[in-house]
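Q&A log
Question type: sequence-to-structure
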Amino acid sequence: MLPTRKKAEEILKEAEKCNPGPWGNHSRVAAHCAEKIAHECADLDPDKAYILGLLHDIGRKFGIRHLGHVSDGYSYMMSLGYDEAARICLTHSFHNQILEDYIGKFDTSEEELSLIRSKLQAVSMNEYDRLIQLCDSLAGAEGVMNIEERMEDVRKRYGDYPQEKWNRNLELKREFENKTGKNIYLVVEKETFRL
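Response status: OK
Response body:
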């Protein structure tokens, strides 16, 4: 289950009132990228991709948390009955499906950590999981970024960026370029799209 596009936009707008910050526009840019790439892929629904991109960081509604935003987002979306969005809240941070993928503080309770670990182990990654992971690493708060620059920005803010995750992002970019037959930066309108 997923909210409509309009409802997803309302959920994000409401969430930003609780915890204002650049994460809201980052989510909008990720949604834009996801929709554009999905348009070029026969097996992906652009509306669904947009909604998932828009809600991937919705856990940030509940305050300034690191790993906690993953469990907050998952639990919040599940409470609304949006299990597909809940899944993306979980998977967008774990390219290799391991907790060590997470960049930032482990600021969760044991219960939250256990939830993330068990749900992550149960997931079989699909194209939407991979798409949002890619779009998360393309999306700045003002527009589309070069993927290496975005990862470097994250490394500067958090002091680290695991090499395996870095490599996986570049791999995802290549995979979706092969799938679309186009340069990803052209597909997502890197040079022209601005919020």
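Response note: The chain is about 60% helix and 0% strand.
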